[in-house]
Design a protein that fits this description.
Distance between the termini: 32 Å
Oligomer: single chain
Order of helices and strands: HEHEEEHEEEEEH
Structural class: alpha+beta
Shape: elongated
Helix content: 10-25%
Bound molecules: zinc ion
Strand content: 15-25%
Number of helices: 4
Largest sheet: 3 strands, antiparallel
Number of domains: 2
Amino acid sequence: MAVAPTACLSELLSDGQLISSRSLTSATRFPPGNRLFEYIGFTGCAVQLDQEPLGATGFEIELEGPFACPVSRLGRNSRPPRCLGCRRPLADWRAQLDQTESDDSPKLHCADCGAEEPAWRWNWGRQGGFGRLLINLEPVFPGEGRPLPALFRLLEHLELGPWRYFYVQD
Ligand SMILES: [Zn+2]
């Protein structure tokens, strides 16, 4: 499958006004666009995004990729992924990944059922994940921002995917 360049993604998101057409410090970091709230549903009060102006909140959207191999985005909130074979949580995933840090596409091994799969294939739930093309919204406290159907409809224009979302705490 062809990989959409970041410029293609930024143009789509800018046209849809998820991001502002005015980039910040680099060509991949953007302030939120005027239609942010149509694409992301926010709950909680950690980030007061409805206080104008949006640009002054420090809220940013960063585009990353495309990468040749899925890259990991795991944080202190990440939980043991479930094995695709036996569904057991993989308790020693951090140790396994640390040992294969230089590997482009590290594998994880389940001692219970013997399954061995690239780390990106494991089920990380909403507490982390992997991707070749990433849209990072920050700051968003885990669970307090959720993509709405309109965002997935917008992303369908890229004809890439499937898209999924997760939360990472550094
Ligand atoms: Zn297993």
